[in-house]
Structure formats: structure tokens, C-alpha cells
Design a protein that fits this description.
Elements lengths: L5 E5 L5 E5 L1 E2 L2 E2 L1 H9 L14 H17 L27
Antiparallel strand pairs: 1-2, 3-4
């Protein structure tokens, strides 16, 4: 399952691009296109395509790449905290 919702749109130069449709954690297609057109958002993969079929194929390939790489958090061992002893407090010397 892909982790982002994308849309395929035609840009000002007549090329097709894939954009993430998520804006601020919510799906907002119009805002995603507006951000792309104002230069505040880049196309997914940084590529443009001459036709919509090529762009959609690239989006499908990108989505499939997420399916094959499960996200795994690796925990670093910290040891058994119960076995640790507190360091002795340093005492001030009497003068």
C-alpha cells in the first residue's frame, strides 16, 4: 500500500507531473496544484513527462516501491537498568 496520495496534472509548460495531494495532513488537490504553480512544492521524483500515461506509470512504480520496503524502527539495546547502581555522591571537603 502506498503511503501518499498523488495526483497527475499538466503544468504550465504542457508537461505532466505527479504531485502529492496532501497539504497540512489533509488531502487538498486544489491547494497542492496552487503550491506547485507558485513554486512552493516540487513534483514527486523531480520529473516531468510528455504524456499522462508515462506520468501515471511512474506514479504506479513509485507507489509499488513503498510496498516492497516495509518501514521498520530498530531499537537500540540500552541494557538492564535494574542492574545499574547510582554513582556515589561526592562530598565536599571540610576546610
Amino acid at each position: 500500500m502506498g503511503h501518499e496520495n498523488s495526483i497527475t496534472v499538466k503544468n504550465k509548460e504542457g508537461k505532466w507531473v505527479n504531485l502529492s495531494s496532501m497539504v497540512g495532513g489533509k488531502q487538498n488537490r486544489k491547494e497542492a496544484v496552487r503550491l506547485y504553480n507558485t513554486g512552493k512544492r516540487k513534483a514527486l521524483g523531480g520529473k516531468s513527462f510528455s504524456n499522462s500515461k508515462a506520468a501515471e506509470a511512474a506514479a504506479a512504480k513509485r507507489s509499488a516501491s513503498f510496498d516492497s520496503k516495509p518501514h521498520v524502527h530498530k531499537k537500540k539495546p540500552i541494557g538492564d537498568l535494574r542492574k545499574r547502581k547510582a554513582a556515589p555522591a561526592k562530598r565536599k571537603r571540610a576546610r
